[in-house]
Specification:
Layout lengths: L2 E6 L5 E6 L5 H7 L17 E6 L2 E2 L11 H5 L2 E3 L4 E2 L3 E5 L11 E14 L2 E8 L12 E5 L6 E5 L8 E7 L5 H9 L5 E8 L11 E6 L3 H14 L5 E7 L8 H10 L3 E7 L18 H4 L5 E6 L1 H14 L5 E6 L3 H6 L1
Parallel strand pairs: 1-7, 14-15, 14-17, 15-16, 17-18
Antiparallel strand pairs: 1-2, 3-5, 3-7, 4-6, 8-9, 8-13, 9-12, 10-11, 10-13
Helix pairs in contact: 4-5
Bound molecules: flavin-adenine dinucleotide (FAD) and FE2/S2 (inorganic) cluster.
Flavin-adenine dinucleotide binds next to strand 11, strand 12, helix 3 and helix 8.
Length: 341
C-alpha cells in the first residue's frame, strides 16, 4: 500500500510524494530527492519536526520527549523521521522548498477551451499532458504562463484534484494581460505551462460547520473544495455566501445547485452589490452573514475574492469581536499591485 503525502513548505510550495508501506515520511522524501530538514534521523534531535494537518499515521514510541513532547504530539506535530503514514497525509514542513533542494513543480497542458460565462468572467479549461500528475489540495492555485509573453498570473483551480482537465474561473479584466490573451488570441491546442501547486488556502479536515465567503471569481476554490467534500462525504453543514457586483456576474449556479443535491447539508446564498438590481439580497457579503452561520465561533471560515472584499470581511470579523475556530483566506491580488508593494 502506498500513500500520497503533500509536503507544504514555508514558501507556499507544495510537493507530493509517495510513501511506501512502513516507510517514514523522511525516507520517502529523500528517496524522491527532497531533502527535508534532519539531523539524527533517529527521533533524538527534533530537527525534522513538522505539523500533520490531515491523515492517519503512526509515530511509534522510539523518539525522545526532548525531540517531541506529548503536548506537541497532541497538537498534531510530528517527527518526519518517525512518522509512518497510514493514509494520505498533509504535512507542513518548517522550511522553504529551496532549502530542501526542491522547488515549484512545472507542468504542461493544452488549452481545451475558453468559455465566456458573463461579461465579467471566463472559464479556462486545460487538458493536462498525460502523466503530468498535477496534484494539489482543493483551494490551492497555480501560476499560469501567458503564452507568447514573458508573464504569468496566479489562478485557483475550480476543478477537483485528480482530473485530467483542469478548470479555472477568470475575471475578464478589460486591460488585463491574461484576460486579453484569453479574449482575443487563445485557441484550442495552445500549449500552456503551469507552475505549482501553491498556497496555504486549502480545505482542512472537517470537524465543525463550514462557512464559505466568495467574491466574484473567488468562487473558484470553493468549487474545488465542494467537489472534494462531495467525494469524501461531509456530515457537517456547509454554507456558501457568494457575492458579485451585478446580476449577470452570478455564474456556475447550476454547479452550486448540483452540490445542494449531492451534499447532505449544503446551502448557498447569492448577494448582488448593484442597488438597481431586482435580486432579493443586495449589498455586500458581510450584510448577509447571519449570526447562526457563525455558530458561536465553532465554524471554519474560508474566504476568497478581490482584496477589498477580503479586507472588508476581515474587518467585519474583527468588529464582531469573535474569531472563528478556523479562519483561512486568499486574496486575488493583481500581480502588478503585488510587485509594486
Ligand atoms: C493567489 C492568487 C490566486 C488567484 N486566483 C484567481 C482566480 O482564481 N481567478 C481570478 O480571476 N483571479 C485570480 N487571481 C488574480 C489573477 O492572478 C490576476 O491578477 C487577474 O486575473 C488579472 O490578470 P490580468 O493579466 O488579466 O490583468 P493584469 O494585466 O494583471 O491587470 C490587472 C488589473 O490591475 C490593474 N493594475 C495593475 N497594476 C496596478 C497597480 N499597481 N495598482 C492598481 N491597479 C493595478 C490593471 O490596470 C488591471 O485593471 C489570483 C491572484 C492570486 C494572488
Ligand atoms: S531528524 Fe532528529 S528527530 Fe528526526
Amino acid at each position: 500500500m502506498e500513500y500520497r503525502i503533500a509536503l507544504n513548505f514555508e514558501d507556499g510550495v507544495t510537493r507530493f510524494i509517495q510513501c511506501r508501506d512502513n516507510e517514514t515520511v523522511l525516507d520517502a522524501a529523500y528517496r524522491q530527492r527532497i531533502n527535508l530538514p534532519m539531523d539524527c534521523s533517529d527521533g533524538v534531535c527534533g530537527t525534522c519536526k513538522g505539523q500533520c494537518e490531515r491523515g492517519e499515521f503512526d509515530l511509534g514510541d522510539e523518539y525522545l520527549e526532548e525531540a517531541l513532547s506529548d503536548e506537541e504530539a497532541a497538537r498534531g506535530q510530528v517527527l518526519t523521521c518517525q512518522m509512518v503514514p497510514a493514509s494520505d497525509c498533509v504535512v507542513r514542513i518548517a522550511a522553504d522548498s529551496t532549502r530542501c533542494k526542491t522547488g515549484i513543480g512545472e507542468y504542461a497542458g493544452t488549452l481545451a477551451g475558453v468559455e465566456t460565462l458573463s461579461d465579467d468572467s471566463l472559464e479556462l479549461s486545460i487538458d493536462l499532458d498525460e502523466g503530468a500528475e498535477l496534484g494539489f489540495l482543493p483551494g490551492q492555485y497555480v501560476n499560469i504562463d501567458i503564452p507568447g509573453e514573458n508573464e504569468y498570473r496566479a489562478y485557483s483551480f475550480s476543478s477537483a484534484p485528480g482530473e485530467t482537465r483542469a478548470t479555472f474561473l477568470i475575471r475578464n479584466v478589460p486591460d488585463g494581460r491574461m484576460s486579453g490573451y484569453l479574449r482575443e488570441r487563445a485557441a484550442p491546442g495552445d500549449r500552456i505551462t503551469l507552475r505549482g501547486p501553491l498556497g496555504s488556502f486549502y480545505l482542512r479536515p472537517v470537524s465543525r460547520p463550514i462557512l464559505m465567503l466568495a467574491g466574484g471569481t473567488g468562487l473558484a476554490p470553493m468549487l474545488a473544495m465542494l467537489a472534494q467534500l462531495q467525494a469524501q462525504g461531509c456530515e457537517q453543514p456547509v454554507h456558501l455566501i457568494y457575492g458579485v457586483n451585478q446580476d449577470d456576474h452570478l455564474v456556475k449556479c447550476e454547479a452550486l445547485d448540483a452540490f445542494t443535491e449531492a451534499l447532505p447539508d449544503f446551502a448557498y446564498t447569492t448577494v448582488v452589490v448593484d442597488e438597481t438590481s431586482d435580486h432579493p439580497r443586495k449589498g455586500y457579503v458581510t450584510h448577509h452573514l447571519a449570526a447562526e452561520m457563525l455558530n458561536d465561533g465553532d465554524v471554519d471560515v474560508y474566504l476568497c475574492g478581490p482584496p477589498p472584499m477580503v479586507d472588508a470581511v476581515l474587518t467585519h470579523f474583527e468588529s464582531l469581536g469573535q474569531q472563528p475556530a478556523g479562519f483561512y483566506y486568499e486574496k486575488f491580488t493583481p500581480k502588478r499591485v503585488e510587485e509594486a508593494a
